[in-house]
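>> Question from a student workshop board

For tomorrow's exercise we were told to take the sequence and the ligand below, predict the bound structure, and bring the output to class. My setup keeps failing. Could a helper post the expected result so I can at least see what it should look like? The ligand is adenosine-5'-triphosphate.
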Amino acid sequence: MPADFDTIVNLSKKRGFVFQASEIYGGLRSAYDYGPLGVELLRNVKEQWWRSMVRMRDDVVGLDSAILQSPEVWVASGHVASFSDPLVECRTCNARHRVDKLKDPNKCPTCGNSGTFTEPKEFNLMFKTHMGPVESEDNAVYLRPETAQGIFTNFENVRRTARMKLPFGIAQVGKSFRNEITPGQFVFRTREFEQMEMEYFCYPDAADETFDQWIATRNAWYDDLGMDTTKLRTHPHSEDELAHYAAGAFDIEYEFPWGWDELEGIHNRTDFDLKAHMEHSGEDLTYFDQESDSRFVPYVIETAAGATRTTFAFLIDAYTEEEVNGESRVVLKLDPRLAPVKVAVLPLSKKPDLVETTNKVARALRESWQIEVDVTQSIGRRYRRQDEIGTPFCVTVDFDSLDDNQVTVRDRDTMAQDRIAIDQLKSYLIEKLPS
Ligand code: ATP
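>> Workshop helper replied:
Here is what the output should look like for this input. Compare the format with yours to find the bug.
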């Protein structure tokens, strides 16, 4: 059965994936905190992205640029002038909406009245603050609305120090901020979120081919991590949807409980950004190609994914309710690489010698994986809790374990149980838990 939205939100709160930010003060709308399980899942998503985009490739290197950059950066990039959404206000109920996201551009989705919208006004999405003690326009700075610009401004630093030759990419994971007009759908659209972006610099005449390759590579990433491919589609932007910098753009979309929506954008940004930064900074950001003995500005193919949004999609995608021997169970069928807890170690009872052996087993496994020890409630209920948070393996220490030095390993998906010697447990799990 597919997950419905409320079920996922409730599971997230109940099990400690995501909490409302500032909950004890009534909550701050559209801001969320990631709890003990959520932070592990989010880290694993980012780690898998980094692994496939940086560590496994010899043509992409990483970067971690500052959230606060010179305001000139955002003038050059076009964000000060045109990073805005068209905002209308309903004259009846005062609700504000993004015109381009309205199902019926004439009807207010909040109060249902027609024809009462104000004229659309462009609303800049960047958060503005001040650097230093004086609140004046001269020291205004912006919280970055995307991580990409920190990559473009470091193009020459990275090329020179990492001795990169075209084609090559620079990848970055980090927080971005957008003062969204209509945040919502839980962590899908928030004002503070995390992105996983990569800018791939290439020869201008290779841009189209490189663009197609990255669409395939990024689709394969979701597939490899077990996302249901029938719920993934790649959707081209029409001319009027294209961002100010893009010559071509595709969205990878997921079928969320409310319909198809974007997970990741893949854009052909041409030489727009490097040229803009050259013009505004006066620095030379051209590339010298030894083979052709020529200088030019590289083209850029961008893959821009949301880490928090993708984490939410993996959570929705993994949620399964199934019937086993006449009983229903909830299980998060997360790929083991994403699962927040890899192995739960459970003593059959709270007897001290069982708990002692449990702790010994857990200590040995902790060197390699995120482990949870759970001693309370019946073993059946503890299995169900681990299923519900997606733990791939439960290791049970029972009374026989004290004599035969073996434990029972239960597989989350098949629920099959294997009896394994404690000194073989780690190698058994290494086989089953890829990194
Ligand atoms: P949208 O049309 O949904 O506003 P966008 O096309 O402006 O998104 P990009 O600028 O391409 O988004 O950003 C790349 C990715 O960053 C998006 O695909 C999404 O996963 C993530 N992202 C963008 N805005 C948000 C947000 N407000 N909350 C969470 N994730 C976001």
